[in-house]
Design a protein that fits this description.
Strand order of the largest sheet: 4-1-5-9-6-10
CATH topology of the largest domain: Spore Coat Polysaccharide Biosynthesis Protein SpsA, Chain A
Number of helices: 6
Helix content: 25-40%
Number of domains: 2
Number of strands: 10
Radius of gyration: 19 Å
Largest sheet: 6 strands, mixed
CATH architecture of the largest domain: Alpha-Beta Complex
Shape: globular
Order of helices and strands: EEEHEHHEHEEEEHEH
Low-confidence stretches: none
CATH class of the largest domain: Alpha Beta
């Protein structure tokens, strides 16, 4: 079985400019995704899809392949990433398993990647995504706001809930890893159009970087992990 890892890293990030090659923990952000994929030991190739020559150069420096450049129209703010997935699938030779490792989850470890691949290969699904236990719950402490300013529970429960811990378990999707087949990407338009399983990732490895605050928090966690490792 040919398993290919893909990292999608466009150059036009606005929330955190230059995010994908910005240093984090001493190396560019994209390097963390490359290393996790490589260290999983299950990927035959790690391929980067980008429209930016600077990102391409950094990716190759850290051991990834950049066999094609992403078309500009697939790197716009409003371009669905699914189309970039489909472009990548068509741009490389035949393979069996598609594994996406977004740059935005730099605290993932190799085991998270292996767990997702192994969950998929046990069968029974078309896609594996990752999730973390949610800190808030729409049936207890999340609200909607009406036009005249009144708040209401987002998803009123059928029975009264006095504590968040008593609410049914709910999870936040993360960007740690996605696993599917090239054929599923060709035939469908989105993740949840098939049977989806989720690998649960601990919160300390499931941070998604979308803002400067996220980036600062990731730096803090990475430095804390490095200090802990040095003491051990």
């Amino acid at each position: 079985m040919k398993r290919y890892g893909f990292i999608f890293a466009r150059g036009g990030s606005k929330g955190v400019p230059g995010k994908n090659i910005r240093p984090l923990g001493g190396v560019p952000l994209i390097a963390h995704a490359i290393r996790a994929g490589r260290d999983s030991g299950l990927l035959d190739r790690i391929i980067v899809s980008t429209d930016d020559p600077k990102i391409a150069a950094v990716a190759e420096e850290y051991g990834a392949e950049v066999p094609f450049m992403r078309p500009a129209e697939l790197a716009l703010d409003d371009a669905p990433e699914w189309l970039a997935w489909r472009h990548a699938v068509e741009a490389v030779d035949d393979f069996d398993l598609f594994v996406s490792l977004p740059c935005t989850a730099p605290l993932r470890i190799a085991r998270d990647v292996r767990d997702c691949i192994e969950l998929f290969e046990r069968g029974g699904c078309d896609m594996v995504v990752t999730a973390r236990p949610a800190e808030r719950h729409p049936a207890f402490n999340m609200v909607t706001m009406s036009g005249d300013g009144y708040a209401a529970i987002a998803m009123p429960p059928s029975e009264r809930i006095n504590r968040r811990q008593d609410a049914p378990p709910i999870y936040d999707l993360t960007t740690v890893c996605y696993v599917t087949t090239p054929d599923f990407i060709r035939r469908h338009e989105g993740v949840f159009q098939g049977r989806v399983k989720a690998a649960i990732i601990p919160p300390e490895r499931a941070l998604d970087i979308d803002t400067e605050l996220d980036f600062a928090f990731a730096q803090f966690l990475m430095e804390r992990n490095q200090q802990k490792a040095s003491k051990d």
